[in-house]
Amino acid sequence: MQPGDSVTLQCSVHTETCAGEHSVYWFRQASGESLPGIIYTHGNRSDQCERSSGAGSPTQSCVYKLPKRNLSRSDAGTYYCAVATCGEILFGNGTVLDIAENDYKMQVGVLVLLSVIRTGVLLCMLLICVLFYCKPMSC
């Protein structure tokens, strides 16, 4: 991802159907941090769940989304979700969000280097012309 981009992180939970509500928590662990910090919560949410009945006990699949807009380097890290439902807390595996650094400094460096090379080539050509044309005059 690049700075300024947008992304939507998803957390999928498959669990037995129960009458209780779901509480969803999002955490981010930045590079170099030992513990993740909580960044967002959805309280009492079950509206994003689809019930699926099959052989055995009925289950439901829930997908929770965390939209991130206008990304910056401070948004980089591993994002985790945790869902409290049916008397238990389920944790996601984590999603790594990398934010690429703008390479404007490198682009400017390349332009400066090319300008120096171009100027050097022009000076060499000028010196060759001066030596070539001045040599017959001195004889």
TrEMBL record:
<feature type="transmembrane region" description="Helical">
    <location>
        <begin position="77"/>
        <end position="96"/>
    </location>
</feature>
<dbReference type="Pfam" id="PF07686">
    <property type="entry name" value="V-set"/>
</dbReference>
<keyword id="KW-1133">Transmembrane helix</keyword>
<keyword id="KW-0732">Signal</keyword>
<dbReference type="InterPro" id="IPR003599">
    <property type="entry name" value="Ig_sub"/>
</dbReference>
<keyword id="KW-0325">Glycoprotein</keyword>
<keyword id="KW-0472">Membrane</keyword>
<dbReference type="GO" id="GO:0002376">
    <property type="term" value="P:immune system process"/>
</dbReference>
<feature type="domain" description="Ig-like">
    <location>
        <begin position="1"/>
        <end position="83"/>
    </location>
</feature>
<protein>
    <recommendedName>
        <fullName>Ig-like domain-containing protein</fullName>
    </recommendedName>
</protein>
<keyword id="KW-1015">Disulfide bond</keyword>
<dbReference type="InterPro" id="IPR036179">
    <property type="entry name" value="Ig-like_dom_sf"/>
</dbReference>
<dbReference type="GO" id="GO:0009617">
    <property type="term" value="P:response to bacterium"/>
</dbReference>
<keyword id="KW-1003">Cell membrane</keyword>
<feature type="transmembrane region" description="Helical">
    <location>
        <begin position="108"/>
        <end position="134"/>
    </location>
</feature>
<dbReference type="InterPro" id="IPR013783">
    <property type="entry name" value="Ig-like_fold"/>
</dbReference>
<dbReference type="GO" id="GO:0005886">
    <property type="term" value="C:plasma membrane"/>
</dbReference>
<keyword id="KW-0391">Immunity</keyword>
<keyword id="KW-0812">Transmembrane</keyword>
<dbReference type="InterPro" id="IPR013106">
    <property type="entry name" value="Ig_V-set"/>
</dbReference>
<dbReference type="InterPro" id="IPR007110">
    <property type="entry name" value="Ig-like_dom"/>
</dbReference>
<dbReference type="InterPro" id="IPR052051">
    <property type="entry name" value="TCR_complex_component"/>
</dbReference>
